[in-house]
Specification:
heterodimer, A: 2 domains, four-stranded antiparallel beta sheet, 13 helices, 12 strands, globular, B: Aldehyde Oxidoreductase, domain 4, seven-stranded mixed beta sheet, five-stranded mixed beta sheet, binds flavin-adenine dinucleotide, binds iron/sulfur cluster
Chain lengths: 334, 760
């Protein structure tokens, strides 16, 4: 499998990159580490005419504390995030998620956090070689009118398997998107659409600049399930955030439960989250209940298209949420 | 008296692979690296259906594309050009396709890109037919036929065997267990993908560079293809580049090799076909998947009374060696543990799936999975400890099994002991943790599958005390070169690095039936040893004149030829060789040897001692089962093997580690997922081969039984590492959480479903 032909441009600064995106729009694709983009290009899933590389934009690579926020540059490598004490302390779920991404070789210097949360949705019927796909009608995501994953579905049900996205959503992160002349900030909750073909609300001329995580004094955790210990996307995952109330340390004031790798986007489970408010940190049965509510709510969105059986993945939503809650609760107690 | 390792100076030593630096530095030449002047690039177009008639093929646009030299379809393939041992598989299909991997056209062009483009321009109209993908359904009377010209989907195969009296033994048994097991498609995952370059000289003699484990038999296949092409009495030269892994995958010739030949002949230029990873997954063969029914029993003391096994093998659409794996399955079925009454029926059934091939263990892992799982079930039913039941029934030196296998040396008991020493089998592990054991028998002294089980060696001394050994054997990464070097060096008092092993070229190397059946150390080793002994005698004869002593007084050590106790009578081997070459009436020191073991072909009766000796082993696993997710973690693994003698313990351990990790993938994660005949996970992301991070710590105790027929006592050990892994894991899971998984791979969801069922 070879890459299709493209023109490669390496802007030397952020403004230069914005200019290029302004000019080329849909014809261009941004390349960060390329570990998602190039694989899709090799399969012929997309054929951008122009590649705008962020290679020279070192200014987009940072992790810093600014007041009560952690700010991460879009081009920061997964390895840098894993190595950061700040992240480990204040955004443990992100640390745990990054640790599981691909393998050392992907985390190392290639894979970036920006690329991670902007990676395309996946589906076993879609992420196949050009030859495999050529033998049949194209599906929705491939420009056609059918879906192989769900019979008679009028839209694409591909799955968001980004580890980073699920963890960051649990942490209540927002992102800064920039286009020539303007900048906007959007919560991850609102950023992910439920459209399998275009999974996020982003324009082709926009560049992701920064990810911002509020430091809220709570504890977070991320759990995922995969067959192997490395080079394996999650088949289900959960990110949770728990915060104790100022008055009573043993009482949950705020909770966020997000499950990933099960639907078109990471799902913030409002009902399960609010159920935990006011519960005690050592109330294991409340965690179990919240986990079961999570499973019930998430299952309706689940699609059988990233391996394993659907029954199993749905059952595991509850288990991953439960494990994550337990872990977050334990660290909170410590 | 048997020798101990301290009696040797090279044998038994941990000598790193002689080609390690070459490979680590990227200097080794694989097929991908080879470019010949004027070479064209071939590519193959595969079917888009599992089962369809080809109504029309239009290649005109591809032919017209600039840079394209040839386009072939089934119409261009000579009628008699067919592959596989029952010759049911033409390299390009005509009129009809029976599986997704069926070749429908091929092109040769000046670049891989143009070749690819040309394929895209070939227009084919198909008429889809009903596909049949379940072998048990394919056996039913009114099933659609995969090959319309045949009466049934069931192949004519001889596997219907009965030793002793199973019915009677069953009646007399105190305990009987019965169950159904299934095993999946897995594939070899060689890191070096397949490829070949074919070229013809002006007289239509063929040279083919190809990744093969069977240079001599491949030569025969290619000669037959030439004959089918009307090229009689031609020469075929098979050159092997460095091979990046075989594991059985290169034991047959493939369509791409024959297509390269057709294209090269048509274009009068060298043509290379090299697979990418997707093609490697889709167009090379898998391990034979099986459906296994097993029933076995014991008396009240735990002594096995009978074993009754029935199997259905999914043959796929065409036939390769996968269909003959019952011949090796028969070995554990009839001879793993002492059991007098044995019945075995196997049926191979055509389906529209991919076809299978040889793969490390050749059927043995499938059969052993059922046998060893069932042994634990029987032990439980009879109320006997699972180690004890294995001890009671263990094979022993001097046994002859119902199949007629003669067990010369047997270290099975020591292997079981070694596993028991490392792991606890008292059922007192912490919650969710358990141990399991499973044993193995495998051919360790060649295997007479064909009329011959022979291998030749030619040994040539140079002027300086170095040796070239030309062997028929094949090194494909497993380290045969080292083993031969160590054997020859030991015999001639040299160092391993003094020996250059050449195995790459049928124009130079002698004949051999191939690198299969764990036979290379034993057979190619014995051939090299035979040649070394012959040359040694010649040198002794020459030196005896020089030193004026009887030839048998002369010894070899530390590169010297000498008479012990007489300091005057000693000379560096190099100097002696130069004397031989330079003295009047000089002599050249060279020898050849053909070793064909005294083993038996099974013949019509399906009985006979197929190997000179048998390797044994016992594997033990300690696992932890997460009862919430069903995930199995392997905590410890012990793989003890009776290897006769470890010529090189370092390579031997490597072979065992590699085998075990392959076996663990088989047990837990690996599966070629097939949806209506189509492979859905043709990449390493979705095909769950164990990664370095998944690998577990393995202890590999070596039991040496010094086999009288092996070179320096060695037995073959290429395959056993992956044979009893799956049942060891399955048994450990049962010990841990009380569920028995009978279908491989043992995925978390299967464990969880079973746990739920148990707890409900
Ligand atoms: C073998 C393998 C295993 C993997 N396993 C995992 C896994 O377990 N979990 C997981 O989450 N991911 C996994 N991945 C996916 C991927 O490697 C990671 O998500 C990685 O972090 C992506 O980062 P990147 O910089 O390489 O992205 P790229 O491929 O460079 O970019 C991904 C997408 O984001 C866009 N993009 C990137 N940066 C910007 C920006 N600043 N502004 C606008 N658009 C941008 C690109 O145009 C592209 O569409 C795996 C990939 C491989 C090849
Ligand atoms: S979910 Fe359906 S439409 Fe979307 S990628 Fe998969 S098969 Fe295509």
């Amino acid at each position: 499998m070879r890459l299709p032909r493209f023109e490669y441009i390496e802007p030397i600064n952020f403004e230069g990159a914005l200019d290029l995106l302004y000019i080329h729009k849909d014809n261009a694709k941004v390349l960060a580490g390329g570990t998602d983009l190039l694989v899709r290009m090799k399969k012929g899933l997309l054929k951008p005419k122009i590649i705008i590389s962020l290679k020279a934009l070192k200014e987009l690579s940072y992790i810093k504390k600014d007041d009560s926020y952690i700010k991460i540059g879009a081009r920061t490598s997964i390895a840098d995030i894993i190595a950061s004490d700040l992240i480990k302390k204040e955004a443990c779920a992100l640390f745990e998620a990054c640790e599981k991404i691909g393998a050392v070789t992907i985390q190392h210097y290639r894979g970036t956090i920006g690329g991670n949360i902007l990676q395309d949705n996946r589906c076993i019927h879609y992420n196949q070689s050009a030859f495999h796909r050529s033998g049949r009608q194209p599906c929705h995501k491939d420009g056609g009118k059918i879906c192989y994953a769900r019979d008679a579905s009028d839209r694409c049900n591909s799955t968001c398997q980004s580890d980073g996205a699920t963890a960051l959503m649990a942490l209540g992160a927002n992102i800064t998107l920039v286009r020539k002349g303007t900048e906007r900030i959007i919560d991850l909750d609102n950023f992910y659409t439920t459209d399998g073909i275009m999974p996020f609300a982003m324009e082709s001329n926009e560049l992701l600049k920064e990810i911002v995580i509020p430091i809220q004094g709570g504890k977070s955790s991320y759990k995922r399930l995969a067959y192997r210990s490395a080079i394996d996307y999650p088949i289900v995952s959960a990110g949770v955030f728990l915060k104790s109330s100022d008055t009573s340390k043993n009482e949950i004031e705020d909770a966020r439960i997000v499950v990933g790798a099960i639907a078109r986007a990471p799902i913030f489970l409002a009902k399960a989250s609010s159920f935990l408010k006011g519960k005690k940190f050592n109330d294991i049965s409340a965690f179990k209940k919240a986990a079961d509510i999570s499973m019930d709510n998430a299952s309706t969105f689940a699609v059988h298209n990233v391996g394993s059986t659907l029954e199993y993945r749905c059952a595991m939503v509850s288990e991953m949420v439960f494990q994550a809650l337990k872990e977050a609760a334990i660290v909170t107690q410590e | 008296m048997s020798k101990s390792n301290s009696d040797f100076s090279v044998v038994g030593k941990r000598i790193p692979k002689l080609d390690a630096a070459q490979k680590a530095m990227g200097r080794a030449e694989y097929i991908q690296d080879i470019k010949l002047p004027g070479m064209l690039y071939g590519r193959i177009l595969y079917s888009k259906y599992a089962h369809a008639n080809i109504v029309k093929i239009d290649t005109s646009k591809a032919v017209a594309l600039s840079g394209v030299h040839a386009v072939l379809t089934g119409e261009d393939v000579p009628e008699k050009m067919k592959m596989g041992f029952i010759k049911d598989n033409p390299p390009i299909k005509k009129g009809k396709v029976c599986s997704f991997r069926d070749e429908v056209a091929a092109v040769a062009a000046i670049s891989p890109e143009i070749a690819k483009k040309a394929l895209d321009l070939i227009e084919i109209e198909y008429e889809e037919q009903i596909g049949i993908f379940d072998p048990e359904k394919a056996m039913e009377k009114d099933s659609p036929l995969v090959h319309g010209h045949l009466k049934s989907n069931v192949l004519k195969m001889p596997w219907d065997i009965h030793y002793g009296d199973v019915e009677k033994a069953e009646k007399e048994s105190a305990f009987v267990v019965e169950d159904r097991f299934t095993t999946q498609w897995v594939t070899h995952c060689c890191l070096g993908t397949s490829g070949a370059i074919a070229l013809f000289d002006a007289n239509d003699n063929l040279t083919i560079h190809t990744n093969t484990q069977i240079p001599s038999l491949a030569q025969k296949d290619f000669l037959e293809s030439l004959k089918a092409m009307g090229l009689e009495n031609k020469r075929v030269r098979v050159i092997k580049p460095i091979i990046g892994g075989g594991f059985g995958s290169k034991l047959d010739t493939y369509a791409y090799e024959h297509i390269a030949i057709l294209l090269a002949h048509k274009c009068r230029k060298p043509v290379k076909i090299a697979f990418d990873r997707v093609e490697e997954f889709k167009a090379t063969s898998t391990r034979q998947p099986t459906i296994i029914y097993i029933k076995q029993g014991c008396d009240k003391n735990g002594k096995l009374t009978f074993r009754d096994m029935r199997m259905v093998l999914d043959n796929g659409a065409h036939t390769s060696w996968g269909a003959t794996t019952p011949s090796v399955m028969l070995m554990p079925i009839s001879s793993l543990y002492r059991v007098e009454n044995v019945k075995y029926v196997a049926k191979c059934v055509y389906t529209n799936n991919t076809y299978s091939q040889a793969m490390r263990g050749y059927g043995n892992p499938q059969a052993t999975f059922a046998i060893e799982s069932s042994m634990d079930m029987l032990a439980e039913k009879a109320g006997i400890d699972r180690i004890e039941i294995r001890r009671i029934n263990r094979n022993q030196s001097g046994d002859e099994t119902p199949q007629g296998l003669k067990i010369t040396t047997c270290g099975l008991e020591e292997c079981i002991d070694a596993v028991e020493k490392e792991l606890k089998f008292d059922g007192k592990n912490e919650k969710g943790v358990g141990t399991g054991i499973a044993s193995l028998i495998h051919v360790g002294g060649g295997a007479r599958i064909y009329g011959s089980d022979g291998c030749g060696a030619i040994l040539k001394m140079d002027d300086y005390g170095k040796v070239d050994v030309f062997t028929g054997g094949t090194d494909m990464g497993q380290g045969l070169d080292n083993i031969i070097a160590q054997i020859v060096a030991e015999e001639l008092g040299l160092l391993a690095e003094d020996i250059n092993v050449v195995h790459s070229d049928t124009d130079i190397c002698p004949w051999d039936v191939g690198a299969h059946a764990s036979r290379s150390t034993f057979v190619a080793g014995n051939a090299a040893l035979g040649a070394a002994k012959k040359v040694k005698q010649k040198i002794q004869k020459f030196a005896s004149k020089l030193f004026d002593v009887p030839a048998e007084k002369i010894e070899f050590k530390d590169k010297l030829v000498f008479v012990p106790g007489d300091q005057e009578k000693s000379m560096p081997l190099g100097k002696l060789l130069r004397k031989a070459h330079f003295s009047p009436g000089g002599t050249m020191l060279m020898a050849e040897y053909f070793y064909d073991p005294d083993n038996q072909n099974m013949g019509k009766e399906l009985k006979g001692n197929m190997s000179m000796t048998y390797s044994f082993g016992a594997h033990g696993a300690k696992v932890k089962v997460d009862e919430e997710t069903g995930k199995v973690e392997v905590l410890e693994y012990v793989a003890a093997h009776d290897v006769g003698r470890a010529i090189n313990p370092l390579l031997l351990e490597g072979q065992v580690y590699g085998g075990v990790v392959m076996g663990l993938g088989y047990a837990l994660t690996e599966e070629v997922t097939v949806k209506d005949g189509e492979i859905m996970n043709a990449n390493f992301r979705d095909y769950k081969l164990f990664t370095a991070k998944d690998a577990v710590k393995i202890k590999a105790p070596i039991i040496e039984t010094d086999d009288k027929d092996g070179p320096f006592g060695a037995k073959g050990i290429g395959e056993p590492g992956c044979v009893p892994t799956a049942p060891a894991i399955a048994n450990a899971i049962y010990d841990a959480v009380g569920v028995r998984i009978k279908d491989l791979p043992i995925t978390p969801e299967k464990v969880l479903v079973a746990l739920k069922k148990k707890n409900d």
